[in-house]
Specification:
six-stranded antiparallel beta sheet, about 15% strand
Length: about 600
């Protein structure tokens, strides 16, 4: 895993810009703490920061061969098979790295090699013969990749900060960008920063003298499902087991992230079967807090984590967090620096994930996660809420769920009205629905559930993958996501909903596929989200911080706020239990202020 950066300017020789290119690269130091590389040749500069996972000695980048140069972030899990095939075509390898496999695959098949890759990746490939830069991102968007068009070329990087380190990129926020911050919908290709774009999952972006062109090498398609239920269950198990086996391959210590839920427990159990020794696992909880069930979380993770640990014989570590750590100035500065945007939803989960991953990194370099199972198998409540299913909008933003993603409550009503969030959301929904594949002859109910799944995989999951990538890579930890294997996604996406929910429970298909691996308590457990602190001390600290901003009077966020509502929040009595979904407006106001101060963003609304 790594961080990449680059710059192409067809009108200049970038040799004189080594300092700027290096500055862009060094913004990725947390993503790649083990090594740094910079390659410049005429109009192109490629930078790389490396987290050594495969072939620590031989995988240095940027890697150059026969007029082709690559800067690569991620992992290709089928690199062994591709390497053997390329050897059959006459290629000779000098390293054991997957980067060299990708480089030679490009030399053999050109951009068509993208369809042969199984993994999570983002890369920039410079082809000197074609005088062309190719930007490429994995099918599910596990690894991020951004670019900023210039009159004679482009800037690109794993994170916006790499691009913003170049003085040619402007730090501006317009109405489109503010909408991206406020609404829990990831608009493909759009970013918070004006003029900056994101490579879409499964997309190729070509940059040449004639300009920029974009192609999709992969997208979800609708296919007839012919397998019966027992065959479908066994196929899911077979693909998932193979995926976990592949993602355990590394030359560094590997672990799993374990919450005691069905998804992470499945990954942990499969990893335990595949490894020669005990699987190392990590969970997170809050020190000194007495858990209170609420509308989101019905039970604590801890008992279920213990059941899985005992069942599979894991080498387990529980990471305990507290309010002081979550509100620590250095932690919150590190989170914002990693995120590049103000976290608008469940703001405590960002520092919580950061602190968890920092602790994991002390013992492991790679972690396997259960992310994406809910979107793929139908784990969220809105998959079973008739009103959410029928609504002409994104199901997680309907009345039953929207309060969990509300971050605009303290913003000035005139500002919010001017953004026309309902209108923008409706437009985004229409665009997403128009993309959703249709299977001829499918019933109306099955077609709607296919649409709901598509919306979750392409508009909701992207926000979660981005958060996990940023917080993990900020600590130099690589998180792999077995449920994002495109073979599994393609197969399960086309399983009829009646089969996915055959026993009337959430994630029926996954539950059946891994039932023999898990203790009864986990097999029967309902979906529970990632834990958030309920500490009143945490909420009080946030209120006090907002109070100081108001008293000082010069905070950049103040002109954007409804000051009467802000004062009400500051003055409200301390609550016995702090509910995460009631803190959205407070969290956003504080993160937005930090972002405006740190990033020196020009607001152009």
């Amino acid at each position: 895993m790594c961080g990449i950066a680059g710059w192409v300017d067809f009108g200049r020789d970038l040799s004189a810009e080594r300092g700027t290119a290096r500055a862009m690269t060094e913004t990725m130091a947390c993503r790649g703490p083990d090594d740094s590389g910079l390659w410049i040749d005429g109009p192109v500069a490629l930078g790389h920061r490396r987290l050594a996972v495969i072939d620590p000695e031989g995988g240095r980048q940027p890697m150059v061969d026969a007029g082709v140069a690559i800067t690569f972030c991620g992992e290709v899990y089928n690199f062994g098979e591709l390497r053997a095939r390329l050897i059959g075509h006459g290629h000779r390898f000098t390293t054991r790295s997957d980067t060299e496999v990708v480089l030679r695959a490009y030399r053999q098949w050109g951009a068509a090699m993208a369809a042969r890759l199984n993994g999570m990746y983002a890369m920039g490939i410079w082809d000197a013969g074609r005088r062309e830069l190719l930007l490429l991102r994995d099918r599910m968007g596990v690894k991020p990749l951004y670019y900023y068009p210039l009159p004679d070329g482009v800037l690109f990087g794993s994170e916006p900060k790499a691009i913003l380190a170049n003085p040619r990129a402007r730090r501006r926020l317009d109405a489109d960008g503010l909408y991206e911050i406020l609404d829990m919908v990831k608009t493909p290709e759009r970013t918070v920063f004006t003029g900056m774009a994101e490579v879409r999952p499964g997309q190729l972006v070509r940059v040449g003298r004639a300009g920029i062109s974009k192609d999709r090498y992969w997208r979800l398609t609708a296919r007839e499902h012919h397998d019966d239920l027992p065959t479908t269950i066994s196929t899911v198990r077979e693909i998932l087991a193979d995926t976990v086996d592949r993602q355990l391959v590394a030359d560094v210590p590997v672990c799993t992230l374990l919450s005691g839920g069905l998804d992470s427990s499945s990954v942990t159990a499969l990893a335990a079967r595949a490894l020669a020794g005990p699987v190392r696992s990590f969970s997170v909880d809050f020190a000194g807090e007495r858990f209170e069930a609420d509308a989101v979380r019905g039970e604590s993770d801890a008992p279920f984590v213990r059941d899985v640990v005992d069942h599979v014989g894991a080498d387990h570590t529980e990471v305990l967090l507290d309010s002081d750590g979550l509100t620590d100035e250095r932690v919150r500065a590190a989170v914002l620096r990693a995120a590049d945007i103000p976290p608008a939803y469940w703001g405590d989960m960002w520092p919580s994930l950061y602190l968890l991953f920092r602790a994991v990194r002390e013992r492991s370099t790679v972690a396997l996660s259960g992310e994406a199972a809910d979107e793929l198998f139908g784990g969220y409540r809105w998959f079973r809420n008739p009103a959410a299913i029928a609504a002409a909008t994104f199901p997680w933003l309907t009345s039953g769920s929207a309060r969990y993603f509300g971050g605009a409550s303290l913003l000035d009503p005139g500002l919010v009205a001017g953004l026309d969030i309902p209108g923008r959301r409706a437009e985004a929904y229409r665009a997403a629905l128009a993309e959703a594949p249709v299977l001829p002859g499918e019933s109306a109910d099955e077609r709607r559930m296919r649409e709901i799944t598509y919306l979750n995989l392409t508009r909701f999951l992207q926000t979660l993958l981005d958060r996990k990538d940023r917080m993990s890579m900020a600590t130099g930890l690589e998180v792999r996501v077995p449920f994002c294997d495109h073979r599994l996604v393609e197969y399960v996406f086309n399983v009829p909903w009646r089969m996915k929910s055959f026993d009337g429970r959430e994630k029926s298909l996954l539950r059946a596929a891994v039932a023999d691996l898990l203790p009864l308590s986990v097999r029967e457990r309902r979906k529970t989200p990632y834990p958030a602190t309920q500490s009143p001390a945490y909420e009080r600290a946030l209120c006090d911080e907002l109070g100081k901003l108001v008293v000082n009077g010069d905070a950049p966020v103040l002109p954007l706020l409804d000051m009467a509502k802000a004062q009400q929040v500051i003055d409200r009595p301390t609550r016995a239990v702090s509910l995460p979904y009631d803190r959205g407006g407070l969290e956003l106001a504080l993160w937005l202020n930090r972002w405006l101060e740190s990033y020196q963003v020009t607001i152009d609304l």
